[in-house]
Amino acid sequence: MVTGDFGRSVLDGTSVSGQLAEKFAVTGPLAAGAVVLALAFAVPLGVLAAVRRDSRLGSAVNTVGQFGIALPTLWTGLLLVVVFAVQVPWLPAQGFPVDGWADPGQALRSLVLPWLTLALAEGAVLLRFVRSAVLDVLHQDWLRTARAKGRTRTGALLRHGLRNAAVPVVSVLGLQIAALVAGAVVVEQVFVLPGVGQMLITDVGNRDLDKVQGEILLLTGTVLVVGFLVDLAHRLIDPRLRSTV
User: Fold this and answer.
1) Residue 245: which pLDDT band, with cuts at 50, 70 and 90?
2) Are 115 and 37 in contact (CB under 8 A)?
3) Distance of alpha carbon 227 from its chain centroid, rounded?
């Protein structure tokens, strides 16, 4: 493990480390792009749902978030394929370029629908947590004090509230990223992506234990790294965690 040598496949004798690097070049960007898209709509919509909680707009956003949580990832992926690859053939339905990222444009087009599939599911969960965190901040005394000093509600929220609301959201985001990396198996199967998830399913069926061992170790290590980065992010966001006794 320290030297990066995970042995060789029992079936074909190829290097497990080399195959893991090749497959993670698909799974890594898949998870990263889904997180970016999920944050892009979850954060503003979650804040909007909290600030306008008593309006029809806030209720509508909250309902959309609940609906997104209830949708199965498999069904969402198939629906996107039917709409954007069959009825309106804008994007490829499945597959990934044989030469990988040699043609970045084609590779990105192959990941658009998988990104949307994962982002809709994970973004709906994040939206709910952002809404709850911002609602909690809006009732804090220090935010009312900021408004009493002359700041508008939007100004006080942007200056003081969002940073405090980000602490629990970052914790949930870390869990979501870990779930994306380890749970991208379904999406990779639906869109026939040659990632770590599809590789793991194939190797379990073939009983290629050396490869399965390396794949599980890679996924576990990724989850541990994400947890470590979340702890660092907490220290950057909350100055109380940086104080020493």
Assistant:
1) very low
2) yes
3) 14
